[in-house]
Design goal:
Blueprint (H helix, E strand, L loop, with lengths): L10 H10 L12 H25 L3 H29 L3 H21 L17
Length: 130
């Protein structure tokens, strides 16, 4: 039997191990339910605000929704491209490629959105709304 494996620990030894143990935050694949709940509430509030504003301004809500999605896609493209560049600068090429691919996915979403006509006055669908 190997002598490096102890047969037991005294309470004092266990306490020393606890005192010297790192205090790493437990990570989980599950989203923080408080954050998830807050984000969903904010999303609902934004959706209500968009409905109210489109009614007040006489803008079709589906057109406003499309434009917000396009703006959000562009924001995510910029963010993912920025993070990809930072990883590349640090030589973290695998991470850089992953972030760049996700930027491309958002570009694809924006491209698809810009081919969908949502209103007869949709000027955000180049070449298709005429």
């Amino acid at each position: 039997m190997t002598s490096s494996i102890p047969n037991g620990f005294s309470s004092e030894e266990l306490q020393k191990l606890l005192d010297n143990a790192s205090t790493e935050k437990c990570t989980s694949d599950e989203p923080d339910t408080d954050i998830a709940k807050l984000v969903l509430e904010l999303g609902d509030n934004i959706e209500d605000y968009m409905d109210n504003m489109s009614t007040e301004q006489g803008v079709p809500p589906q057109l406003l929704g499309k434009v917000v999605m396009l703006l959000t896609c562009n924001r995510m493209i910029d963010w993912h491209s920025h993070i990809s560049k930072k990883h590349a600068e640090r030589g973290e090429l695998d991470q850089a490629v992953g972030w760049a691919r996700d930027a491309g996915k958002f570009q694809a979403l924006a491209n698809i959105l810009s081919t969908i006509i949502v209103d007869e006055n949709d000027e955000f669908t180049p070449g298709l709304s005429d």
